[in-house]
Amino acid sequence: MTKPAGRPPRSEEDVTKFRTKVSKGAMALYREQGFEAVSMRRLSKTIGCAPTTLYAHFSGKTEILMLLWSDILSEMAAHIELSLRPITHPVDKLQTAAVIFVTYWIDHPDHFRLVFMSTDVGRSDVDGFLQNTDALQHFRVFDDLISDLDQTNSPLRVQADTLIASLIGLAMCLNTLHGYKWSVMSEMVNQLLTGFINDPEQQH
Amino acid sequence: MTKPAGRPPRSEEDVTKFRTKVSKGAMALYREQGFEAVSMRRLSKTIGCAPTTLYAHFSGKTEILMLLWSDILSEMAAHIELSLRPITHPVDKLQTAAVIFVTYWIDHPDHFRLVFMSTDVGRSDVDGFLQNTDALQHFRVFDDLISDLDQTNSPLRVQADTLIASLIGLAMCLNTLHGYKWSVMSEMVNQLLTGFINDPEQQH
DNA sequence: CATTTAATTGGTACGCGTTCCATAAACTAT
DNA sequence: ATAGTTTATGGAACGCGTACCAATTAAATG
């Protein structure tokens, strides 16, 4: 097992250094000039390399955009937790968090597009697995809110995942499927939450 | 108010004729060669016009892709109704329909991309309003299934819209957000349906 | 007929994501 | 040093969606 000849692969340090440079550059472009400004050509120009070089470090644009997910999602989670501060009743907290969550994506369609509509459909995406795992943990904001209800029906994990995915669906439909007269958002959220608040005494 | 001189705008008949030609051509390309084959240049070539002419009839590619929604969605609705035939119990019917719905989009990621990820985020999209309205009516497959449960809680419209949007959310998350370990789909569907089946005697 | 107005066309152009390939760079072995 | 091997880089190119524009064609009016 001797060292192979030829130029060695870039050191792990250089790899992460480049990745963070790309991440910073992409974030700057996105924050300052919006979604459309984040293009491979402009990004390569701002970080000082050829457009093709990006493809040596990332499988494509999607993987680069994933670097921005963490920022967006933590901002969203912080926004929810801030809105939750004055509220004490567990049911109210959950209901508020759900409404705020959907509202956030409707108020920030660019963020929505970035996180939910910049993915390669139907791909296992082994490359982006790590970033994914990190960023998407912010969806766990609902875990505590649900467990505070002290339900004993189905596993917490199933409940939380279902709630998150459903809320994303609401945001998605209201955001993109105009032409279908959807019901009022808050009413849909309430209807959705009936599946998570089984104790009639907790209902309002 | 006399008629102005000069060539009149194209007759409504010619307009619809061209639109159906585009629709047929786009559908042929999509069915025979997949999503990526539906490009403005190729489409214009197959229907025999200049690429720019398409922009005289449609605001952009999105509006053309909407022409395909109706086909896909009616196929989906038919698929659901077929799977529902051997089932009699109302709760079973709803549960089966929901699972089949989500499964359909996971089994056909290209269809999913076409309907749910080819839209302009955050635009009112007045142009595509009509096609939208027509095609999206296929979401109403769940109306009867819900009303057969004889619930008296919230309006049928709210219930159906919430269910559809939530199921779309499940399909979306399972389709695109790999890297987050979602719960098993059928369990999430069951969790979701608890909000629509309130009578404990109906539960299984 | 000529005129007017609208529809269509083709060409050009921009920036885009992505791929290919030739070259440069960095290392080992001789 | 030199040769050999592997990686990293960047220029050229393809097809894409879309916009602009000049030229042409079509259908009405006078």
In terms of topology, how is this protein built?
Two copies of one chain form a homodimer.
Chain A: H1 12-33, H2 40-47, H3 51-57, H4 61-84, H5 90-107, H6 109-116, H7 129-136, H8 141-147, H9 156-176, H10 185-193
Helix pairs in contact in A: 1-2, 1-4, 2-3, 4-5, 4-7, 5-9, 5-10, 8-9, 9-10
Chain A binds a DNA duplex (30 and 30 nucleotides) through residues 2-10, 39-42, 49-53, 55-56, 60-61.
Distance N to C terminus of chain A: 69 Å
If you average the pLDDT of chain A, what whole number results? Answer: 90
- The helix tally of chain A amounts to 10
Q: If classified by CATH, what would the architecture of the largest domain in chain A be? A: Orthogonal Bundle
Number of beta strands of chain A: 0
Strand content of chain A: under 5%
CATH class of the largest domain in chain A: Mainly Alpha
Helical fraction of chain A equals: 55-70%
Q: Which ranges of chain A are low-confidence, i.e. pLDDT below 50, for 5 or more consecutive residues? A: none
**Biggest contact:** A-B, 58 and 58 residues
> What best-fitting shape of chain A do the alpha-carbon axes yield?
elongated
Rg of chain A, Cα atoms, Å: 21 Å
Oligomer state of the chains in this structure = homodimer
Query: Structural class, from helix and strand content of chain A?
Result: mainly alpha
CATH topology of the largest domain in chain A: Tetracycline Repressor, domain 2
Q: What is the count of structural domains of chain A?
A: 2
Major sheet of chain A, described briefly? none
What's the order of the H and E elements of chain A? HHHHHHHHHH
